[in-house]
Amino acid sequence: MSLLPRPEIRRVTTCQHGGIDYAELETLGIAPQDILDFSTNLNPFGPPPGVMESLSEVDVSHYPDPEAYYLRCSLAENLGVKACNLLVGSGSTELIRLVALAYFVPGDKVLIIEPTFGEYQVACQITGASLIKQQLSAQNGFWLDLTQTVELIRSSYPKGIFVCNPNNPTGRYLSRADFEKILDAGKDSMVILDEAYVSFVDNAWSSLDMIEGSNLLILRSMTKDYAMAGLRLGYGVAQEEIITNLRRICPPWNVNALAQKAGLIAIGKEGYLKQCQTELREARNYLVAKLSELGLAPLPSEANFFLVEVGDAPRFRRELLKRMILVRDCSSFGLHQYIRIAPRTLPECQKLITAIKEIRGR
Fold it and tell me: What is the DSSP string of 240-296?
């Protein structure tokens, strides 16, 4: 007789992500290096200068620093917080699972505002938590109905609240005042503020001063900021007690030595992100204008990606893939008519527009 896992594990669903499906490309006879990938919300300009060169200096015959001490100290100085307020993870997705394992038990209610990043649901399913969902509507441009959110929190008393800001995949960005209302209503909840894409928001507000005296965990992604998806690097910021609890269940040596070294180098390149933001804004504006001319006006977004309604999203994705271009089919978010596009360099964006014109017979 087969040994069965916990009941919660048998109910865990698979979360689809952007990025290359290598098995799919193998079936299609396409080499991964030939793909222009607009499906992942990463900095398209690559890691900062010096990052790749620094990796050859890492001695991989030794265990990495289990505390990521130097990286945490560098982050702390850069962010204006204490090192004890930081936990570094193998991508922010690891930290999403850690906070769920640390704070949620079977039957706990957790609020998720959808459509959003699917790993929140997976983390809750692993722990057996019960999901409360608030559904955003395309009819009002996927804006959050804050009154409804606060009412849900006050009526259901959730143990946890996930807020993605800016939200993936909609790109909508809550103001500080609106988030403060959620934090206030959920003062007895663990509030997870996922800011994976905040570095690409113009005039973003800082949430870091909110951690003291609150049950707030802020998540950030160096993977997204510095184009290091292959290394996996993210961090969480919270009051010391929360970080201590997460550290208790954090796997030893969870961040490899290469990622720690790359993170240290990237933090020291202060002007790199600003330069990338300027170029990315130009590429984004180009895509918005050209797509609008084709009758495919993107939905408003404050992030480095946006939704486009194309009718049959899986078919549209397949047609672009035939032309060596990958976009995110948003069916896994429940948005079967939408694709998500994350702008790349301007010349690459021009190739995307040319491909879309071919598909639409323009």
Answer: HHHHHHHHHHSPTT-S-HHHHHHHHHHHT-HHHHHHHHHHHHHHHHHHHHHHHHTT-
